[in-house]
Specification:
Layout lengths: L2 E6 L6 H14 L3 E4 L4 H4 L9 H12 L3 E5 L7 H6 L26 H18 L5 E5 L11 H15 L2 H7 L27 H29 L5 E2 L1 E4 L7 H4 L6 E5 L9 H14 L4 E5 L18 H11 L2 E6 L25 H16 L12 E4 L2 H6 L12 H14 L4 E4 L6 H5 L4 E4 L7 H12 L3 E5 L21 H4 L1 E6 L8 E2 L5 E2 L4 E5 L3 E5 L9 E8 L2 E6 L5 H15 L12 E6 L2 E6 L5 E3 L7 E3 L4 E5 L4
Parallel strand pairs: 1-2, 1-9, 2-3, 3-4, 4-5, 6-7, 7-8, 8-9, 10-11, 10-12, 12-13, 13-20
Antiparallel strand pairs: 14-17, 15-16, 18-19, 19-20, 21-22, 22-25, 23-24
Bound molecules: beta-D-galactopyranose.
The site of beta-D-galactopyranose has 11 residues, from loops.
Length: 646
């Protein structure tokens, strides 16, 4: 079965609408509904007084209609009574402002009162529904990520730091607290990062981000264990959020859920927008070790700055199939029915304000049919890739701080660019996680690995990446990779300290470029955003800087190391220029596209015997397939080809 459905909020609607919903879900072929995500105030209107009647009725109706339920714990939004009874459990911003209810995600995960209230409602739900026949999976909380800097958090942060560093002298050393007289003489002096006079200590901020990720994970694990004890056979997940806002280290969290569930809201439009969907799907598959579930995406309009962008006809179907091709076990949406009011009343839904007589609902009905027909043909195995891009949440956090050499440095942009360029060349791309203990083992699956802005790297990860090259791999390192240790301290002796030897070079001076002022390269391309002075020590120079004081200095190099090759890309490049380099690396690594020779508006994803073809353009695309007739994919459409059969 391919899961098809989404967030369903019957608590917002009278009984007759719920009846209509069930009928419409059947018409669309919906087989799962996520229920109860923000329903705490409806489930427990007063402390200790529960109203489960409405939920009993909804679960019963859905079950009778053959629709499973991803039952949520409602802990992302405590009710107003909770706030007033426990003001100390409300989050405090870095500026010292204590927030109040009126929106959502307003809680301090370290606050004992919040944790107790959460355990309580979760235990009630577990007791009542753990063996309900409609229960397909538990959906814990919603997009963990709330940040708090209160005194309770401060105490929890200190315990975390004591456990991590053991000794205050060690913390002082790795945080470089002698800089600006920050040396701590007692654990009690350490605060969460709060508003302060000028730049904070980056090591302090980095440890706080790691702490927060672990602290939120503790909140998840507590709920998971309660639910698991009530019925060990029901899978438990929480929806990870992917995008520009990331409070937790999903690669670490992935080991704690039964299935990685991801919310992905691509916002790109126009030619090439499919790269964002591909990125989301490929990264989620990396977290999920091959298998994951698209828990939320938008059927149509999403909240984007400036104005909302409508999807093109067919785009909902094409993007959904793209996620499934990339390993998702389903296609689920936020949300089933568009609300009449509330903060997100203009966010799209499968049943919009216009009702079922609407383009989006008609497309949903067709999509339901397509997924049902595809389900028995969908192979178990995920797409196989020989290329991987590295993803590292702590490197992202480190590069979000102040005091960096250029305001144009953006971690997410760099990783997305590397992925996009490989994707445009038709290559299947996976992700690897240098912060995880299984890095060495995971690297064995690849011929080519790209490290975009892998700013922080541990000795163990650096050794695993060096050995990957020594044993025949092709490693591509860019500027800003391998610069610091996991605490954010610079690896001395010339950048990139972690990879100087494998690259056969050192970087002795950074020369960030002013926005819009590129630097010439001797192959006709231009460096943008970034340049630096590279001195080779064994590496072969492939491209040189051709302008500025760097004229003649190496810009792109290649170094044999053992049986493999390490490539260095010193300047920032646009997609075309980076594409030329990565194509060359791929060719030398013997990595080939999923389907060579595709026109640019077509993409192909292979899962076992099944080949998915997507046409993201506005003209038909014809594909010659070895051993069978050519296949034409209509504009905006897709085709599945199984061993020559369409
Ligand atoms: C998600 C969230 C949903 C809804 C949606 C809107 O991140 O989980 O509750 O807010 O965004 O795009």
């Amino acid at each position: 079965m391919i899961y098809f459905g989404g967030d369903y909020n019957p608590e917002q609607w009278p009984a007759d609408v719920v009846e209509e919903d069930v009928a419409l879900m059947r018409r669309a072929g919906v087989n799962i509904a996520t229920v109860g995500v923000f329903s705490w105030s409806d489930l427990e209107p007063e402390p200790g007084r529960y109203e489960f009647g409405w939920l009993d009725r909804v679960l019963g109706r859905l079950h009778d209609a053959g629709i499973g339920v991803a039952l949520a714990t409602p802990t992302a939004s405590p009710p107003p009574w909770f706030t007033l009874a426990h003001p100390g459990a409300m989050p405090v911003t870095a500026d010292g402002v204590r927030l109040t209810h009126g929106s959502r995600d307003t809680y301090c995960v370290s606050a004992p009162a919040y944790r107790a209230a959460a355990r309580n409602i979760v235990a009630e739900l577990a007791e009542r529904y753990a063996h309900h026949p409609a229960l397909t999976m538990w959906h814990v909380h919603n997009e963990y990520g709330t940040d708090c800097r209160c005194d309770v958090t401060a105490a929890a942060f200190r315990s975390w730091l004591e456990k991590k560093h053991g000794d205050l002298d060690v913390l002082n050393e790795v945080w470089t607290t002698s800089f600006w007289s920050q040396r701590y003489s007692d654990w009690a002096q350490i605060m969460p990062p709060r508003a302060t006079q000028y730049l904070p200590n980056p090591a302090h901020v980095l440890d706080f981000r790691r702490f927060l990720s672990d602290e939120l994970l503790g909140g998840f694990i507590e709920q998971r264990d309660l639910l698991r004890a009530a019925n060990p056979d029901v899978p438990i997940t929480t929806n990870f959020v992917q995008g520009g806002w990331v409070s937790v280290d999903h690669a670490r969290w992935a080991g704690e859920v039964d299935i990685v569930a991801v919310d992905h809201y691509p916002a790109a439009t126009g030619a090439g927008a499919d790269a964002e969907t591909a990125f989301g799907g490929d990264l989620a598959r990396g977290w999920g070790r091959g298998s994951w579930l698209l828990m939320e995406t938008a059927p149509n309009l999403i909240y984007t700055p400036g104005r909302m962008h409508a999807k093109e006809p067919g785009q909902l179907t094409r993007n959904s199939l793209d996620y499934v091709a990339r390993g998702s076990r389903g296609a689920m949406y936020f949300q089933w029915r568009q609300p009449r009011g509330g903060a997100e009343l203009f966010h799209s839904a499968l049943v919009p304000h216009a009702g079922p007589d609407s383009p989006v609902f008609r497309e949903a009905v067709g999509l339901g049919r397509t997924l049902k027909a595809l389900a028995p043909r969908l192979p178990e195995e995920p797409p196989a890739a020989r290329v991987a891009v590295a993803w590292d949440a702590p490197s992202w956090w480190a590069l979000q701080g102040g005091g960096l050499p250029s305001a144009e440095i953006d971690y997410l942009t760099a990783v997305q660019q590397a992925h996009r360029v490989l994707h445009r060349s038709g290559l299947a791309v996976d992700f690897v996680f240098p912060g995880m203990d299984d890095l060495r083992e995971r690297l064995t699956a690849y011929d080519m690995v790209v490290l975009p802005h892998l700013f922080l790297v541990s000795d163990e990860a650096a050794a695993a990446l060096r050995d990957f090259v020594a044993s025949g791999g092709h490693l591509v390192v860019d500027h800003l990779s391998g610069i610091a240790d996991p605490a954010g301290r610079i690896r001395l002796g010339g950048y990139p300290g972690a990879f100087r030897d494998v690259l056969g070079l050192r970087v002795v001076e950074w020369r960030p470029l002013a926005g819009g002022t590129p630097i010439a390269l001797d192959n006709g391309d231009r460096g943008i955003r970034w340049s630096e002075r590279v001195e080779t020590a064994g590496a072969e120079t492939l491209v040189r800087y051709a302008g500025d004081v760097l004229a003649g200095a190496p810009a792109i190099t290649r170094n044999r190391h053992g049986a493999g090759t390490a490539w260095y890309v010193s300047p920032g490049l646009d997609d075309d220029a980076l594409g030329r380099i990565l194509d060359r690396v791929a060719a030398e690594a013997g990595v080939t596209p999923v389907l060579p020779g595709l026109p640019p508006h077509l993409t192909a994803v292979r899962r076992g015997d099944l080949l998915f073809l997507f046409n993201h353009g506005d003209v038909p695309g014809t594909v010659a397939l070895p051993g069978s007739d050519p296949v034409t994919v209509q504009p905006g459409g897709f085709q599945c080809v199984e061993s020559g059969r369409v």
